[in-house]
């Protein structure tokens, strides 16, 4: 477990406003000071100082960035694929669709698993949010949102509620009622308010707090009961497209990726940006932590996925291939972290060997861009949602498929790959 | 890629990286030495130069990128779809066939990156040309578009017709071969940009991306960056070799637990429609599986994440008379992740039970941390117990946890733990097992809602994550 997740934050009176709050450690003219996140934001908004122009600011930024890259390069003594040379290569992977969940009337934009390992919530462009028991393919709940393009949805850890949002700039929480007569929309709780679309949302370790990211360039932490903003996170200069919470029980960090090509790691308590990575050449569409919490992977429009290590503080692997031209929209790890599943805008899913950096499988089967890829909580299957379009004589069905792996045996056992009719 | 729609002037439209990549590949395909061999193709009575077969394209891709047939066909198909390569014989069918069907490279003038979005005016001129050249040549949807355009840009219609006539006159003066090629190219361009069915068109419109560079935002962003930058620079870094080794170890350690890598016993429920695997690993099972118990030894977090593991650990701590540590830690978690409104009362409870002098379950924290915590309690907030919680967490992690793993209690459980039998394949493999539904997690809370203690225990079960 990564001990870096234990960020020691100071809590005390802000040097500026004197209020007791979690404090950010920042440097003003090379002197360390402790400001609360609100004061930092106000200071940043004060505009240009005398003699400064946007160009001088940018030039200084570039200098600092170069310096940061130099520092990072100092401790880089080996590449990942070199370390991985001694590991056995993975054999052939055979993956088959096991379930196809049909029922959305339009593009599936987001999918999330329930902790019971079989239920899924999915949201689509037509405003529908559906909760399925993926194992039986039954639909259990359906909500129609008042807006279209519901880009974010999340299942609560207890399994009793779902959160969703999109073009309405809000994140709403719907408690799941089993009463057939009850209209889920009636008990809806409006939690988050942003000034632009909601791109991603996630519950923290309980049903009581939600983390959201938005097209307005910020992320925010909200209290579900009161709808109160607990912390906001500023530091992206363009839309934030994705976020992911660190898997540590006592950790307090999360990572976000955005259209400014940056992936930022944040402390949830103080709002401080603790690490920043900018090596992608285009928008980062998706971020996901490696299961140990020591690293995270990103999928981007530049058709690469990259792995960033938090302790080494640098990018450690790039997953790309000449024949992969379109951007990766979504990434997720298998349970052991050995495999990285990435959905691409050219309708395929590529499966990467995280350690060796090679691609182990390419999955066809979707007829439109893959918008989301999620591995189930116990790693038994992974599901992909897409902008699919299956024409039927009577109506248009959009579906998404559930894939799982049949059973790969490597090493000494030499089991054959299971073939199931 | 953001879905923000195109805004007014002053917005920078960036080239989609996928288009740049495709164009780079197209250029290398046309390389005189390493590219695809082009030949003349007979189309009716005319000879079209510089054509290639679908098979040529696929084979070149296989060789260049070291990929399979299927993938090469898929990649080649993308080039056709986005108008970089067009078919000669069946121009309306934008599909790549890996046989001797002929294809040509589209001229850069008509590339997606140079002429996008396709303008209405140009389309009107194109349709007008077709109409003039041969009456009735417009097919159904083209006729509809033509009429719609005629209505929409009626004010410039004279210009449209004049342009169309001029272009037709100019083309008559060309050699027949050139004329046909130019017509093919133009036709291909419009087939890509104005396809008969709209979904493609819709997709194309969302390809652009905007970078709104409003000045004040850039200033603010840069300021924030400076403020954080020295913090970034001052970070303690670890050597790459150490970090990367840890991944190898982690993957190795977890591989037997990864169903996608190594299957799971008795069987993967999605494959065999048998939920034994889930039943055997549920929270309330009498005897856990061996893999599950082994996993508790991987890290302290694994033990705590599993409700059963936590219970076992608590039993052990009770024997050691240090159970209050785990209870304190759990109570702190509840404060951190619970409702904001309830924080003061929860913190008070914690103080009474664990921190007050003479408390029934007093936890042993060092005096400095205790002092700081007690001071903070005067104005309770979500993180007031963080320092104390961390101290106790590390105490358990460094002391109680290793001893638990060596204890009789753990070893005993490990010995008794089940190794499930692999499910034998059914005799009639085509008969599908019935898939039963399971009680919804929402049900569990509803029935327990009346019970006052439920909220606390539920928020705890909410924190349990994996198996």
Automatic annotation (TrEMBL), chain A:
<dbReference type="GO" id="GO:0007165">
    <property type="term" value="P:signal transduction"/>
</dbReference>
<feature type="repeat" description="WD">
    <location>
        <begin position="191"/>
        <end position="232"/>
    </location>
</feature>
<keyword id="KW-0677">Repeat</keyword>
<dbReference type="InterPro" id="IPR001680">
    <property type="entry name" value="WD40_rpt"/>
</dbReference>
<comment type="subunit">
    <text>May interact with RGS9; this interaction stabilizes both proteins and increases RGS9 GTPase-activating protein (GAP) activity, hence accelerating the deactivation of D(2) dopamine receptor-mediated signaling.</text>
</comment>
<protein>
    <submittedName>
        <fullName>Guanine nucleotide binding protein (G protein), beta 5b</fullName>
    </submittedName>
</protein>
<dbReference type="InterPro" id="IPR036322">
    <property type="entry name" value="WD40_repeat_dom_sf"/>
</dbReference>
<feature type="repeat" description="WD">
    <location>
        <begin position="363"/>
        <end position="396"/>
    </location>
</feature>
<dbReference type="InterPro" id="IPR020472">
    <property type="entry name" value="WD40_PAC1"/>
</dbReference>
<dbReference type="InterPro" id="IPR016346">
    <property type="entry name" value="G-protein_beta_1-5"/>
</dbReference>
<feature type="repeat" description="WD">
    <location>
        <begin position="101"/>
        <end position="142"/>
    </location>
</feature>
<dbReference type="InterPro" id="IPR001632">
    <property type="entry name" value="WD40_G-protein_beta-like"/>
</dbReference>
<feature type="repeat" description="WD">
    <location>
        <begin position="330"/>
        <end position="362"/>
    </location>
</feature>
<keyword id="KW-0807">Transducer</keyword>
<dbReference type="InterPro" id="IPR019775">
    <property type="entry name" value="WD40_repeat_CS"/>
</dbReference>
<feature type="repeat" description="WD">
    <location>
        <begin position="277"/>
        <end position="318"/>
    </location>
</feature>
<dbReference type="Pfam" id="PF25391">
    <property type="entry name" value="WD40_Gbeta"/>
</dbReference>
<comment type="similarity">
    <text>Belongs to the WD repeat G protein beta family.</text>
</comment>
<dbReference type="InterPro" id="IPR015943">
    <property type="entry name" value="WD40/YVTN_repeat-like_dom_sf"/>
</dbReference>
<feature type="repeat" description="WD">
    <location>
        <begin position="233"/>
        <end position="276"/>
    </location>
</feature>
<keyword id="KW-0853">WD repeat</keyword>
UniProtKB/TrEMBL annotation, chain B:
<feature type="domain" description="DEP">
    <location>
        <begin position="32"/>
        <end position="107"/>
    </location>
</feature>
<feature type="compositionally biased region" description="Polar residues">
    <location>
        <begin position="456"/>
        <end position="467"/>
    </location>
</feature>
<dbReference type="GO" id="GO:0043005">
    <property type="term" value="C:neuron projection"/>
</dbReference>
<dbReference type="InterPro" id="IPR036390">
    <property type="entry name" value="WH_DNA-bd_sf"/>
</dbReference>
<dbReference type="InterPro" id="IPR036305">
    <property type="entry name" value="RGS_sf"/>
</dbReference>
<dbReference type="InterPro" id="IPR044926">
    <property type="entry name" value="RGS_subdomain_2"/>
</dbReference>
<dbReference type="InterPro" id="IPR016137">
    <property type="entry name" value="RGS"/>
</dbReference>
<keyword id="KW-0734">Signal transduction inhibitor</keyword>
<dbReference type="GO" id="GO:0007186">
    <property type="term" value="P:G protein-coupled receptor signaling pathway"/>
</dbReference>
<feature type="region of interest" description="Disordered">
    <location>
        <begin position="429"/>
        <end position="467"/>
    </location>
</feature>
<feature type="domain" description="RGS">
    <location>
        <begin position="299"/>
        <end position="414"/>
    </location>
</feature>
<dbReference type="Pfam" id="PF00610">
    <property type="entry name" value="DEP"/>
</dbReference>
<protein>
    <submittedName>
        <fullName>Regulator of G protein signaling 11</fullName>
    </submittedName>
</protein>
<dbReference type="InterPro" id="IPR036388">
    <property type="entry name" value="WH-like_DNA-bd_sf"/>
</dbReference>
<dbReference type="InterPro" id="IPR036284">
    <property type="entry name" value="GGL_sf"/>
</dbReference>
<feature type="compositionally biased region" description="Polar residues">
    <location>
        <begin position="437"/>
        <end position="447"/>
    </location>
</feature>
<dbReference type="GO" id="GO:0009968">
    <property type="term" value="P:negative regulation of signal transduction"/>
</dbReference>
<dbReference type="InterPro" id="IPR000591">
    <property type="entry name" value="DEP_dom"/>
</dbReference>
<dbReference type="InterPro" id="IPR047017">
    <property type="entry name" value="RGS6/7/9/11_DHEX_sf"/>
</dbReference>
<dbReference type="GO" id="GO:0008277">
    <property type="term" value="P:regulation of G protein-coupled receptor signaling pathway"/>
</dbReference>
<dbReference type="GO" id="GO:0005096">
    <property type="term" value="F:GTPase activator activity"/>
</dbReference>
<dbReference type="InterPro" id="IPR040759">
    <property type="entry name" value="RGS_DHEX"/>
</dbReference>
């Amino acid at each position: 477990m990564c001990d870096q997740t234990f960020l020691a934050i100071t809590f005390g009176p802000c040097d500026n406003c004197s209020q007791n709050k979690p404090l950010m450690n920042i440097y003003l003219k090379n002197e360390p000071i402790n400001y609360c996140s609100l004061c930092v934001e106000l200071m940043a908004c004060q505009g240009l100082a005398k003699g400064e122009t946007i160009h001088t600011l940018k030039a200084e930024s570039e200098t600092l960035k170069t310096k940061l890259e130099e520092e990072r390069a100092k401790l880089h003594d080996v590449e990942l694929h070199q370390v991985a040379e001694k590991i056995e290569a993975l054999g052939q992977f055979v993956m088959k669709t096991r379930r196809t969940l049909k029922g959305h009337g339009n593009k599936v934009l987001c999918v999330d698993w329930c902790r019971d390992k079989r239920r899924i919530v999915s949201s689509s462009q037509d405003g529908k949010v559906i909760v399925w028991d993926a194992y039986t393919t039954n639909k259990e709940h359906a909500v129609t949102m008042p807006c279209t393009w519901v880009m974010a949805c999340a299942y609560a850890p207890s399994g009793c509620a779902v959160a969703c949002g999109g073009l309405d700039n809000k994140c709403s929480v719907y408690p799941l009622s089993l009463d057939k007569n009850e209209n889920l929309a009636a008990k809806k709780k409006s939690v988050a308010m942003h000034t632009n679309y909601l791109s991603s949302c996630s519950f923290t370790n309980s049903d009581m707090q939600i983390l959201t990211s938005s097209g307005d360039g910020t992320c925010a932490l909200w209290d579900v009961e009161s709808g109160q903003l607990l912390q906001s996170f500023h530091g992206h200069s363009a839309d934030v497209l994705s976020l992911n919470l660190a898997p540590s029980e006592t950790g307090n960090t999360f990572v976000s990726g955005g259209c400014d090509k940056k992936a930022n790691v944040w402390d949830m308590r103080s709002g401080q940006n603790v690490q920043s990575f900018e090596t992608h050449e285009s928008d980062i569409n998706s971020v996901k932590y490696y299961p140990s919490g020591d690293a995270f992977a990103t999928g981007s429009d530049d058709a690469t996925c990259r792995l960033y290590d938090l302790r080494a503080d640098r990018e450690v692997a790039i997953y790309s291939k000449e024949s992969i031209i379109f951007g990766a929209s979504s990434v997720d790890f298998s349970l052991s972290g050995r495999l990285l599943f990435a959905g691409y805008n050219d309708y395929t899913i590529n499966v990467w060997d995280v350690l060796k950096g090679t691609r182990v499988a390419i999955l066809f089967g979707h007829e439109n861009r893959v918008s989301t890829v999620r591995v189930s909580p116990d790693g038994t299957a992974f599901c992909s949602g897409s902008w699919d379009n299956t024409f039927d004589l009577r109506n248009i069905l959009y579906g998404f498929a559930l894939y799982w792996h049949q059973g790969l045996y490597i090493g000494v056992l030499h089991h054959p790959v299971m073939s199931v009719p | 890629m953001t879905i923000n729609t195109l805004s007014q002037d002053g917005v920078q439209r960036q080239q989609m990286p996928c288009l740049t990549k495709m164009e780079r590949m197209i250029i290398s395909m046309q390389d005189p030495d390493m590219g695809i061999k082009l030949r003349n193709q007979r189309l009716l009575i005319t000879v079209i130069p510089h054509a290639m077969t679908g098979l040529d394209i696929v084979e070149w891709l296989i060789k260049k990128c070291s990929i399979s047939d299927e993938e090469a066909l898929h990649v080649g198909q993308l080039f056709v779809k986005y108008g970089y390569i067009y078919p000669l014989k069946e121009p309306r069918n934008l599909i790549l066939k890996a046989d001797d069907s002929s294809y040509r490279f589209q001229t850069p003038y008509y590339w997606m990156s140079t002429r996008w979005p396709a303008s209405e005016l140009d389309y009107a001129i194109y349709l007008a040309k077709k109409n003039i050249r041969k009456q009735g040549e417009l097919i159904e949807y083209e006729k509809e578009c033509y009429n719609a355009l005629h209505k929409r840009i009626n004010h410039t219609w004279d210009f449209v017709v004049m342009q169309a006539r001029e272009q037709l006159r100019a083309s008559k003066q060309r050699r027949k071969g050139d004329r046909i090629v130019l017509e093919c190219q133009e036709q291909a361009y419009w087939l890509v940009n104005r396809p008969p069915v709209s979904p493609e068109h819709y997709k194309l419109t969302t390809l652009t991306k905007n970078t709104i560079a409003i000045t004040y935002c850039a200033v603010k962003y840069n300021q924030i960056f400076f403020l954080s930058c020295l913090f970034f620079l001052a970070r303690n870094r670890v050597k790459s070799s150490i970090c990367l080794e840890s991944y190898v170890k982690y993957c190795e350690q977890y591989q037997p637990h990864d169903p996608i890598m190594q299957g799971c016993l008795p069987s993967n429920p999605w494959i065999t429609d048998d939920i034994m695997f889930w039943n055997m690993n549920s929270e309330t099972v009498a005897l856990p599986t061996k893999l599950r118990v082994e996993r508790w030894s991987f890290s302290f977090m694994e033990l705590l994440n599993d409700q059963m593991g936590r219970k076992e650990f608590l039993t052990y701590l009770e024997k050691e008379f240090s159970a209050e540590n785990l209870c304190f830690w759990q109570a702190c978690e509840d404060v951190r992740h619970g409702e904001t409104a309830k924080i003061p009362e929860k913190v008070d409870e914690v103080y009474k039970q664990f921190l007050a002098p003479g408390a029934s379950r007093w936890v042993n924290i060092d005096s400095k941390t205790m002092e700081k915590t007690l001071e903070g309690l005067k104005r309770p907030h979500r993180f007031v117990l963080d320092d104390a919680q961390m101290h106790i967490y590390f105490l358990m992690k460094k002391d109680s946890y290793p001893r638990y793993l060596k204890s009789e209690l753990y070893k005993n459980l490990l010995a008794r733990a089940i190794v499930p039998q692999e499910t034998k394949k059914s005799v009639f493999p085509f008969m599908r097992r019935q898939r039963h539904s399971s009680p919804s997690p929402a049900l569990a809370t509803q029935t327990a809602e009346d019970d006052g203690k439920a909220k606390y225990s539920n928020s705890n079960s909410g924190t349990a994550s994996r198996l």
